[in-house]
Write a structure and sequence with these properties.
binds magnesium ion, three-stranded antiparallel sheet, binds guanosine-5'-monophosphate, alpha/beta, 2 helices
């Protein structure tokens, strides 16, 4: 499966080290406050950019400090839609944490407060990121070979 990668960007050790650093930073920043983490399991973004919420009820967020966790900040449409939805429930604060952030212009006004790694405008897979439900289980993050991506 790793043969399907054009190149590896971050190997497992590099990712784990960075995750430890981010965890330490977040623990430090929220030392005196209780934190509610909301992990985005599947943004549900369609290619149209419309975000569909399949979950019926959102977790309790009123009056809480919220950290939204997602895999990658790309166009920003997903995270900005989620953020707007959460803001309606009046949390005390909202911050955003992503493993990866693409160095591109966002289509929606959102930035991440915690970023694992910045990458270029390339399609990456591995470490939870999939392409058509494949490659999620790769222990590294890499650029998928372009000929494998359907036009
Ligand atoms: P958005 O464009 O809304 O910022 O990103 C929406 C979602 O698209 C991300 O949460 C992620 O699931 C997916 N996505 C964006 N860029 C990539 C990429 O390079 N690789 C993979 N596997 N998924 C991506
Ligand atoms: Mg996602």
């Amino acid at each position: 499966m790793q043969d399907d990668l054009e190149r590896v960007l971050f190997d497992e050790g590099t990712i784990l080290t960075r995750l430890d650093e981010m965890a330490a930073q977040i623990s430090e920043d929220y030392r005196d406050r209780e934190l509610t983490v909301i992990a985005v399991l599947n943004g549900g973004t369609k290619t149209t950019g419309e975000v569909v919420f399949k979950q019926i009820a959102l977790p309790e967020v009123a009056g809480r400090h919220i950290l939204i966790l997602d895999d990658i900040l790309d166009s920003g449409l997903t995270l900005s839609a989620i953020r707007r939805k959460l803001e309606i429930a009046r949390p005390k604060s909202i911050k955003v944490c992503v493993l990866l952030k693409k160095r591109i212009e966002r289509l929606a006004p959102i930035e991440a407060d915690y970023v694992g790694f910045e990458i270029g405008n390339e399609f990456v897979v591995g470490y939870g990121l999939d392409y058509m439900e494949r490659y999620r289980n790769l222990p590294c993050v890499g650029v998928l070979r372009k000929e494998l991506i359907a036009a």
